[in-house]
Amino acid sequence: MNNRTHFDEKIFQDAVRFYGTVFSIPPLASKIYAYLLFDFQKKGVTFDEFVEVFGASKSSVSTNIGLLLNAELIVDMNKIDERKRFFYINEDFKRIRFEKIVQKMQDELRLLDALEHFNQNSNTNYKENNQRMTAYKELLNLSINNIKESLNKL
């Protein structure tokens, strides 16, 4: 295929390892995601290009694309003049990813508040534990506020 996405092999391999670990996705899904990172002009990549570039079966490519779509890491689109689907990195995923991180930190704060309340009523070493808990909760709150502020800039 002469319309292939141009990419750097070393950066590609580094991206495959990094995003495979960060997103806990299988190797082929990580390769598809990393390959899409090189679509700087946002032309989109077709299913057939993935099959050709990775030498994988259509079934494997389909399964891994489905996984990426369900995880909201990528999006697909049909162009008006074409029957093929084109795949792109989900630009909104950065926001989604950090919103999930904020939600997990807020959930942890609620859990820590419940534990702290329980600890107040049952532990004689409350003051020592409370200082550590307070410092940790302050760190979580600061991180939440910083992430939210940065998200507003996106």
Describe this structure in words.
With 154 residues, the protein is mainly alpha-helical. The protein is 68% helix and 8% strand. It has 6 helices and 3 strands. It has a 3-stranded antiparallel sheet. Helix 5 (93-122) packs antiparallel against helix 6. It is elongated and about 65 Å long. The model has no long low-confidence stretch (mean pLDDT 90).
Element pattern in H and E: HHEHHEEHH
Proportion in β-strands? 5-15%
Number of helices: 6
Strand order of the largest sheet: 1-3-2
Largest sheet: 3 strands, antiparallel
Mean pLDDT figure: 90
Write down the oligomeric state.
single chain
Quick tags:
3-stranded antiparallel beta sheet, 3 strands, about 10% strand
Secondary-structure blueprint of this entry?
Layout: H1 9-23, H2 27-37, E1 45-46, H3 47-54, H4 58-70, E2 74-78, E3 85-89, H5 93-122, H6 126-153
Antiparallel strand pairs: 1-3, 2-3
Helix pairs in contact: 1-2, 2-4, 5-6
What's this entry about, in short?
The protein is mostly helical. The chain contains six helices and three strands.
